[in-house]
Amino acid sequence: MARTVEMRLVELMCLKQDVSNVIENLGKKGVFQFQETKRDPKNSPDKTENIDRRFLDELQSASIFLGIEELGDIIIDSPRATDEDRNQVVKILASISELHSKIEEIETEQKKVSEAYREASAFSNLQVSYEELEHLSFLSLRIGKVPFSNLPALKEALADTAIIVSLGEDSSSILAATSKKGRFALDTELKKAGFVDIQVPKDFKGVPQDALDGLKEKLSQIDQKINELEEEKNNFAETHKEKIIALLKAFSVGAQIIDVESNLESTSMVYRLTGWIPASQSQKFMKEIDELTEGRTAIREYLPSEVSSVINGTEKVPVKLSHGPIVKSFERMIFSYGSPLYRSIDPTPFVAVFFTILFGIMFGDMGQGLVFLVMGILMALNIIKVGGWNKFAPIFMCIGISSSVMGLITGEFFATEKILEPFALWVTGLFGTPHAPIVKMMPSSDPNSIKVIFGIFGVTIGLGFVINSIGLVVNLLNKIRQKKWGSALFGKTCLAGLLFFWYAVFFALRLAFLKSSPHLADWIIIGVTLFFASFGEPFERLLDGERPVLENGLGSMVIGGVVELIEVISTYLSSSISFVRVGAFALAHAVLGFIIHLMAGMVGPVGGVFVYIIGNAIVVVLEGMIVAIQVIRLQYYEFFSKFFGETGSEFKPFQFCYGK
């Protein structure tokens, strides 16, 4: 069986003049994971300003101003920034800063002129000389601004003593008039309303039209200037886009190199780099480093068993899986649950097979399966781009093929059985009386359909038995590999539990199909295996040399064993019955197809086409997601739970990723 990739710890002692080149090489190769170490501050240089990070931040702000699309979290394979790049950035940033200042300046002027125009427009309808109004012996006038929200309350308070005239379109500029006797009441209410007095010249008769026209013309000129500057900005962005993107990548690489360098153990002249690398690439890696630094780097390689932090359990060897493109696309299902332990059995090939088979059974329709297959092919060719989902294109192709095969067996093609009838008649004719479909899943009055349904449930439970058994075998082999003999022999997921599970299934099948009577040996085997599966902890500790054997006393052992006994029985029973849902979903899928077919026949030929299209689209999208979730759930809870008692650490090599 395939195991996780063998790893080595590599130690590099390189000179200060070479460290940047070495780090750049590591980031571009993407095969070296830095070891997490606690460095002594006394043996490390003082952190210096990351000038490339500063340039990167300024360049990112400038690109946002220019409207250049963000790069996102991409892997960069660009050289680090040079002095020439820094000089270019200074010039580009100066040009952008000048353009930014011009736009800010004109926008500020636009705001001022707009405010002046609005204020002037507020008095455009006042045609009586203010001086003449002010000399009236019976009137007191106030001109100013009141918050618009306070205006209704002000008008209500002065309804019987004063007149309020709105002077502008926004009604915030007002003229208030009252009698000389009422001026004190007027001033009191205006103050409550937040009135701000406007100083008006004595001979003011309103704003002349030519003044308003002048302000309007000024606004028009400013708007034109803003448009010109926006066009200048767009042209600058278009002509400098590729260069700016290249500089962003270069400074991102440079910034990350400086960050890594500042966190390394070092003296004034020598830097120490330690990290994990796949054993198959270590020799090539060391040769490249030696050539890069012209032999100035001291390199030492360690087996995991020679690393003190691994020996004392404070560090886990990172786990890397090695697969072809199809199986590799299933790796995320493993690591989303947890990483396998180093040098344990790699479960990814099993996951790929189980996921494909289970999905196909639950989603058996050739037409709908071909949709997934075509989608996967288009994603693999990057004709369809769905962000990070394109790397899962092989999964879509696998489930497309399995669903199509199941559809051939059940005779379903886009929720109809007619199209695949000739194929079914030909196949069944080779083995007896021709009939279609090969296995009928859709509802019918045929009394044999009940047998088919129970047969499907039996097949899925049998498939569950295989999946559960493989999970238990994987766990057993992992424990043997780790030389944990007690854990390998005793416990519900090890040899005792495996033998109990197998014999219990064999015993049940023998009683059901062979009509055999139970024997004393049956009860002895079941009892002994169940006992060691449930009460195996003290025996496990005894065999592994752990003391005391009864860690918490005899009473605690008995109570824990009884609880474990109940759990063993319930776990194996539920793990087996859980796979009934596979058959249930297969039948549900057939029923949905039957409903679509029935509805299409009720609305006529033209309407039926629309029903078929919409119905199949809903099934592909919604039921496809539901089935995928159910398959993942079965993998997690019924397969992974058998051997994922302890998780490892995923191998994450150092790479230059934009945005870090």
Describe this structure as you would to a colleague.
This protein is α+β, with helices and mostly antiparallel strands and 660 residues long. Strands 1, 2, 7, 8 and 9 form a five-stranded antiparallel β-sheet that branches. Strands 4-5-3-6 form a four-stranded antiparallel β-sheet, covered by helices on one side. Strand 4 and strand 5 form a beta hairpin. The chain is extended.
Mean pLDDT: 86
Could you say which overall geometry the principal axes of the C-alpha atoms support? extended
Helix content percent band:
55-70%
Taking the sheet with the most strands, its summary is:
5 strands, antiparallel
Strands, total number: 11
Instruction: Please compute the radius of gyration using only Cα atoms.
Output: 39 Å
User: Roughly what fraction of the amino acids lie in strands?
Assistant: 5-15%
Low-confidence stretches: none
Question: Could you say which structural class the secondary elements and strand pairing correspond to?
Answer: alpha+beta
Whole-Å distance between the termini?
A: 38 Å
How many helix segments? 23
State the main characteristics.
single chain, 660 residues, alpha+beta, five-stranded antiparallel sheet, four-stranded antiparallel sheet, 23 helices, extended
Can you summarize this structure?
By secondary structure, the protein is an alpha+beta fold. The protein contains 23 helices and eleven strands. The chain has helices spanning 16-29, 51-66, 83-122, 130-134, 151-157, 183-192, 209-262, 279-292, 308-311, 325-328, 331-337, 348-362, 366-380, 393-410, 421-429, 448-481, 485-489, 495-513, 520-534, 537-543, 554-577, 580-602, 604-639; strands at 7-15, 33-34, 140-145, 162-166, 173-178, 196-197, 265-266, 270-278, 298-302, 318-319, 649-650.
